[in-house]
Specification:
The structure is a single chain. With 200 residues, the protein is an all-alpha fold. It has one domain: Orthogonal Bundle (Arp2/3 complex 21 kDa subunit ARPC3), CATH 1.10.1760. The protein contains eight helices and two strands, in the order H-E-E-H-H-H-H-H-H-H. A hairpin with a 2-residue loop joins strand 1 and strand 2. Helix 1 packs antiparallel against helix 2, helix 2 crosses helix 8 and helix 7 crosses helix 8. It starts with a helix and ends with a helix. This is ECF transporter S component. InterPro entries: ECF_trnsprt_substrate-spec. One of its GO terms (molecular function) is transmembrane transporter activity. Keywords: Membrane, Transmembrane, Transmembrane helix.
Length: 200
């Protein structure tokens, strides 16, 4: 039991470090007003190996780094939201990260009994959908004036701006990265699950 707990803590610490490094790097990779998210794959892997609660924790780490980027102005779009509504920005950053990780873990757990491959791919798809979907809902319902000003500055109506300026670039790239790396996720999970058998 202690050995298993130590392994879990070590694994989560490793994923935490990977997420922090990837998100800091990703903060400076911009497509439109927001940075691209590079951390969803380690969140999905962690959620698949250690369960939904661990996925929620890793998503929270991701959300915290995003929030720090907003506060310090590394993410210009996020900084605008922070200056407009600091508390709401914090709730959105942390909330969407936690729920993206939790959803990945829940989806993987629900489907893994039938197919690890299908479970990993589905979790890798669900995570960016939840992350981006919640962000867009928050923009529309909590930061509508900011969204209007961005759309106006881009010379587009809100629907067009969301589809082309936000979803069309960032989301497609994030989803594409997750889909491409899904086979890697499957191999990591299989390798991790095979380790106890090798020691037995």
């Amino acid at each position: 039991m202690n050995h298993s707990k130590t392994q879990r803590m070590t694994g989560l610490a490793l994923f935490t470090g990977i997420i922090v490094v990837l998100q800091v790097i990703g903060t400076f990779v911009k497509f439109g007003p927001f940075s691209i998210t590079l951390t969803l794959i380690p969140i999905v892997v962690g959620a698949a190996i250690y369960g939904p609660k661990s996925g929620a924790y890793l998503g929270g780490v991701f959300g915290f780094v995003v929030l720090v980027a907003c506060i310090f102005g590394w993410d210009m779009g996020g900084a605008v939201l922070w200056n407009a509504q600091p508390l709401l920005t914090a709730v959105v950053c942390l909330g969407k990260g936690v729920l993206a990780g939790l959803a990945a873990g829940d989806v993987y757990r629900a489907l893994s009994r039938r197919s690890t491959t299908a479970a990993a791919i589905s979790a890798a798809v669900v995570s960016p959908v939840v992350n981006t979907g919640l962000f867009l809902l928050a923009l529309y319902f909590l930061f509508y004036d900011v969204l209007v000003s961005w759309a106006t500055g881009a010379g587009a109506d809100i629907a067009t701006y969301i589809l082309t300026g936000l979803v069309g670039v960032n989301f497609v790239l994030e989803l594409g990265v997750n889909m491409v790396l899904s086979p890697v996720v499957v191999r990591i999970i299989h390798a991790r699950k095979a380790m106890p058998n090798r020691r037995a």
